[in-house]
Write the structure tokens for this entry.
Amino acid sequence: MTADHGFVLALSGGIGGAKLALGLSRVLPPGTLMVVANTGDDFEHLGLQISPDLDTLLYTLGGIDNPETGWGRRDETWTFMGALEALGGETWFKLGDGDLATHVERTRRRRAGESLSAITDDFRHRLRISSRLLPMSDDPVRTRLLTDEGWLDFQDYFVRRRCAPSVRTIVFDGAGAARPQPDFVAALADADLRMVVICPSNPLISIDPILALEGVRDALRACRAPVVAVSPIIDGRAVKGPTAKMMAELGMPVDAGSVARHYRDILDHYIIDEADLAGVGGLDAATTVTRTLMENIADREALARVVLMAGQGV
Amino acid sequence: MTADHGFVLALSGGIGGAKLALGLSRVLPPGTLMVVANTGDDFEHLGLQISPDLDTLLYTLGGIDNPETGWGRRDETWTFMGALEALGGETWFKLGDGDLATHVERTRRRRAGESLSAITDDFRHRLRISSRLLPMSDDPVRTRLLTDEGWLDFQDYFVRRRCAPSVRTIVFDGAGAARPQPDFVAALADADLRMVVICPSNPLISIDPILALEGVRDALRACRAPVVAVSPIIDGRAVKGPTAKMMAELGMPVDAGSVARHYRDILDHYIIDEADLAGVGGLDAATTVTRTLMENIADREALARVVLMAGQGV
């Protein structure tokens, strides 16, 4: 990716994906990264339209993310939540005062008829993000889970119930009818596309919604640019979140190879952690072994360089 | 008002009215004050339904008002406004982080079908306010002003343009069709009603919208309980806000007598400041002269006691 033309497309969920997206944005020439975000976790709460993965990407790429939580903003205040609680409002989903501005302004503009794409593009410009950032679709897709406690909306499962219920089935309501964002579709067929990166996000709830959109999986299969995925599993565990627990509940071996097999029809190159060599025998994809844990900015940039090199070598 | 039954009804706008309402609530037995608030200033902003006078009353009666501004909450933070500005949102109307909770939760509940009255009553209970607090109506009434710059919505005139345009006409859109809040109407005919207090609010934009509701002025005229008004003019000036400027622009002499004449068909007793004795000759109403400036809690309680005594002596 030292070429002076061409661009890289990254598919991402929230926290883990955003870390690699930030690394990529820092080692690539400005304006040569396009990040497509999962919107299956989007929901309406308190009358506000919330897009958790887009927001995490906005804040991370904009350098205003909260380094302690991975979600939300840095230098955040919580006056709103305290006042809401005193008025008897719902407080299970934590909304910081600065974060609220994103939801209020996005909701206002959505109601005024603007697309999620247009609003996101304006926000990223205002936050001085040189990378493009797109929702996977401007149409609603809603991840729902059949659990041992019945059907749950994603945020009910993820935040309110803290991923405690056991997952039996995951569906992406609306994915069949939702049109992938047009610039995303065009990018997959663009001769200047150098590489598609599947970020180390949860394959089942962060990447699968993107792949479930009409034509996306086929386009990735047909894509001339290499598809490089980074394993979200390190030493048989997920760094954060319910990835490992969900994989086990759905009968997938909890190892890096299992994720690669999940992507097998689209995958050209797979990046795994040094700790997971044992679990990736028999893959068709080329494999690079490196340190994949991203604890700081240097880690993110280093992993991004490995990813870009892997894509060049396919 | 030392009787162990009966109640007092106060008509109020925002800041000045709320000060007297607080005084009344502190000197009357708990639960014997009903405050009816102007909602002509209500508007929708950023997709949120905002009721400035109700909120000022809620915060003042709840002891969480901002003593420096008179509006908004104490111990407020402003993270939301800063973040909104960075995203290109409208920032001419200042919404504190805690204040936002009121608007977000009220808007959510209004959209879910609850009335403004029911929500306000729940909020005042949660803020441990023993006085009843009612919007003048659950139907929309919107104050609009014809100025030398054309028609302006109230908040455009009041906040965005800082009352700079010269006012020619004031209308209360919807007042003809809006039903006065039923408990307000019932209170005016209640045998236990001891007194109606018109707070020292702007007569033209805070009290007139209430009086413009179908049947209210007639009910006040017919009311057996005395109607006591407190002059919002002190020494020929308004304590705060555009009262004096608007009166002058509409051709009213800027003095305490002018406000009394504005209420003359409903007024039984008028309370003026010591500085305004000259301007109240020839009134039909009984008049009490006292210190009306409310700089602290003791002032509010003292004025409230004068008001209650005046009402007893009518």
